[in-house]
Amino acid sequence: xxxxxxxxxxxxxxxxxxxxxxxxxxxxxxxxxxxxxxxxxxxxxxxxxxxxxxxxxxxxxxxxxxxxxxxxxxxxxx
Amino acid sequence: xxxxxxxxxxxxxxxxxxxxxxxxxxxxxxxxxxxxxxxxxxxxxxxxxxxxxxxxxxxxxxxxxxxxxxxxxxxxxxxxxxxxxxxxxxxxxxxxxxxxxxxxxxxxxxxxxxxxxxxxxxxxxxx
Lengths: 78, 127
Prior knowledge:
Chain A contains two helices and three strands. With 78 residues, chain A is α+β, with helices and mostly antiparallel strands.
């Protein structure tokens, strides 16, 4: 069920190539992460839309293999 | 003049009809009640830490809300994810609008945006 941080980062980068991503494995169990994603693609989008873009990048894994990903998103200089 | 019963619909039709019924029911719920939280468990006994966190925030703000336990109905659990194109529960709705999941609600609470949004939407909030 678990997923490693590098995989999460790779999937996000595939969809949002400019993204600055920092990921923290909250419990060290490969199942509970916190990610901060900064991308120019988030400009002018609501938080819901920004998170949806990240979930889209994870292609259905969120809520399945990936149990918990606390997400924080923003555009550069925001 | 009674009509003969229609032949049983193919399984796929049946599924689609059920889906649209679930979607209609969700739309109805979020329209009928100003603040609705789709969650795991109930406001009194949340079954998940993320759901509990949102309940705590709403309670702290003194907001009256309706909790819908998705664990009680698998079709709603799946249906609400499709409804909002959002892969996880909890999901908070205010005046029929999807506000976000646990992370967004928490962030908006910390910045004061949640209280502002509720007030703008005419939901009584504790001062």
